[in-house]
Design a protein that fits this description.
By secondary structure, the protein is of the alpha+beta class. Helix content is 15%, strand content 36%. Strands 1, 2, 3, 4, 5, 6, 7, 8, 9, 10, 11, 12, 13 and 14 form a 14-stranded mixed sheet that branches.
């Protein structure tokens, strides 16, 4: 029996470059040289050398599944805008009308008091709800100059984490990161608050000791059936005029199952490389189907079919990044302030 499939080639190069950036936690994170594949055009506005008050970028999120051939696709697309206004962070997300992604034209503004969903073309407000965002005054204790991307005061952050019971490892000689691990008591509280069925095993935050930037996170959860889920998020920056400007991120979610599957009655063999799957012509394909010698498999599983483990990857790319270019009215008018 022959098999065949069609692989979407668009975005493959991006995934190859991006996944190389998501190295193990013992390696480098947020390194500017590694960020070159993500490197967009970053325009810093007036006063940016003193403080970055606002930030805007077109965001594209790409998805892939390491066990599904041709899974690479554009997952989300929107415009992100953030600005510090009166000591608080305001965020605006603008979604485009894209039937393929299942999105319609909508905008969402979140401030310290409320979140507003509205149609940007007409200004019609569709929903208002209390905001769950945290006032920027809390972050101002760490970045007192109220700059979005100011170099973090890692000694102060280390002391604050320790006061909350975190296990903090200051700059490690091998990795160059400060690592803050959440205590088990807080992990249990966060799990109960979120109503999760899985048990949190660990949560770590990584800070780049050299750049003073947030480098990423690692979380491990264990589900009731023993499945272990490891999620790592790596931040990608581009240094411009001494400022670490975010240009993307790589999020990997590893699912490690405690069991194997019985595939002894399966007629399909192991397919590790999609290129190894025969590609018949349309005429040959029609003939094989007509005689019952072949069937099309819509989703080709790569690797050992008895091994259910898999990895999902989300690569976020910020394009057309610019700073210090947004007015307060861009956030306040629709939010009713």
């Amino acid at each position: 029996m022959k098999c065949w499939h069609r692989i979407c080639r668009g975005g493959v190069a991006l995934f190859i470059m991006a996944l190389c950036l998501a190295c193990n936690l013992g390696g480098q994170r947020g390194n500017n040289d590694e960020a070159q594949p993500f490197k967009p055009i970053v325009r810093l506005g007036e006063g940016s050398k003193l403080a970055v008050r606002d930030y805007q970028a077109n965001v594209k999120v790409y998805y892939s599944h390491n066990r599904i051939a041709g899974s690479e696709r554009l997952h989300q697309e929107y415009r992100l805008s953030t600005k510090i206004i009166d000591g608080a962070i305001y965020t605006r997300l603008d979604y485009y009308n894209n039937p393929q992604l299942g999105t319609s034209e909508r905008s969402v503004i979140t401030g310290p008091e409320e979140t507003v969903v509205f149609k940007p073309s007409s200004g019609e407000v569709e929903m208002r709800m209390p905001s769950t965002s945290t006032d920027y005054a809390a972050a101002a204790r760490i970045a007192p100059d109220l700059s979005l991307f100011a170099k973090l005061d890692l000694p102060k952050i280390s002391a604050q984490f320790r006061s909350l019971g975190y296990d903090v490892q200051d700059e490690l000689s091998q990795s160059g990161f400060m690592v803050a691990s959440m205590p088990q008591e807080l992990l249990a509280r966060s799990s109960l608050a979120a109503g999760k069925r899985s048990r949190p095993f660990s949560f770590k935050l990584f800070f780049d000791a050299a750049s003073g930037a947030m480098a990423g996170t690692e979380s491990i959860e264990v589900e009731d059936d023993g499945t272990r889920i490891v999620s790592t998020d790596t931040k990608i920056y581009q240094e411009v005029d001494g400022i670490q400007v975010p240009v993307g991120s790589v999020n990997m979610v590893e699912h490690d199952m405690p069991y194997t599957l019985d595939v002894s009655d399966s007629a399909l063999g192991v397919l590790n490389d999609p290129a190894g799957c025969p590609q018949p012509s349309q005429e040959e394909l029609d003939s094989l189907i007509a005689e019952g010698s072949a069937m099309e498999v819509p989703m080709v599983t790569l690797g050992d079919p008895s091994d259910p483990d898999y990895r999902e990857s989300y690569v976020t790319v910020y394009e057309s990044v610019q700073t210090n270019c947004l007015s307060d009215a861009f956030f306040r008018v629709q939010a009713g302030r």
